[in-house]
Amino acid sequence: MTITTDPATTATRTYASYAKPLWQRVIATREFAVIALLLIVFFYSRSEVPAFDGPLTVYYLLLDLAPILLIALPMTLIIITGEIDLSVASTVGLSSVLVGDLHQHGWSIPSAAIAAIVVGILCGAFNGFLVAYVGLPSLAVTIGTLALYRGLAVGILGTTAVTDFPEKWTDLAKERIGDSSYPVIIIPFLVLAIFFVLLLHFTSFGRGVFDIGLNDEAAHFSGVNVARTKFLLFVMAGAVSAFAGVYFTLRFGSARGDNATGMELRVIAAVLLGGVSIFGGRGALHGVIAGVLLIGVISSALRLEDVTDNIINIIIGLLLVISVMSTSFLSVVTRATTGIKKRGGSRPDERQQLASAHTEGKNE
């Protein structure tokens, strides 16, 4: 008896993400949509908002967005695992206060900056230990450490501010790259961006990050060290946030306990707007970077048009809600279209195939 096999059945791909052409997998994504929207908003702002056009605007835009761009890099990986870190802005404030306080006590700026980054690493390690090894929910942990680190920052300096920083360091934080309109802070950002892109998208560690976000129990049984991965991600977030705090202090020439208050919400909004799923398991860094720039361009253009901060916050909030809702909406549409295709193009069942094969055997 001879059983024939349908060639179309053996040629069907099993991974849905590779069932479409490459151009469609690249263009039909949320990341590409955010990048396209960024370009539209940017060029529209240049043509419709006269004050927005010019290298000076780009320079100040990047200066203001640099801390958010930096912190968004590790935050992306954390959210992909299904966790969150709300204490990053408090870590920025604590590191800022440490730089100012240590400088007042005679430390040089580089020494104070290194000490602040070490403290930031310890803050991230504390978050990571409670989340990864104790098993506490990251939302509850980082809400607590948000208040803890901010309280420490305010407790060190009180209501005073340190402003007597050497001009060579404050000028360096605002220095341009040659004669261009790009500030020097873009260089460390690009270095960190390349590092996180390679880490997330081209290493086994990054594949483990996605696996944890999809199902941490399955990731554990497939060989991923879930606890260590989460712990390292929170440590990275603490270190990068502390570095952003050092830059923030020198950029504005002021160390205060309330520096960067509310920045964590802007970081999370940019990450989610950039295509990272709040449920974990999905995201890409190029979309996140575009999301940060998109929020920055919209805010800058609206401010130049004398729009109040309250209206800007409403617009950014709406973008965030739409970006979160779009994930569920697209999932529903995908399931619906897949079901229609399956019902419309269903093949004969197994009994019909066996009956056909049996008939062919008799004829032979």
From TrEMBL:
Q: Where found, per UniProt?
A: Cell membrane
Q: How does it sit in the membrane?
A: Multi-pass membrane protein
One Pfam family from the record: BPD_transp_2
Region described as Disordered: spans on this chain: 340-364
Where the protein is mainly located, per its record?
membrane
Instruction: Provide the alphabetized UniProt keywords.
Output: Cell inner membrane, Cell membrane, Membrane, Transmembrane, Transmembrane helix, Transport
Report the transmembrane regions from the record. 27-45, 57-80, 112-133, 139-162, 182-202, 231-250, 271-299, 311-333
Report one GO cellular component.
plasma membrane
MF terms in GO:
transmembrane transporter activity
**Name assigned to this protein:** Autoinducer 2 import system permease protein LsrD
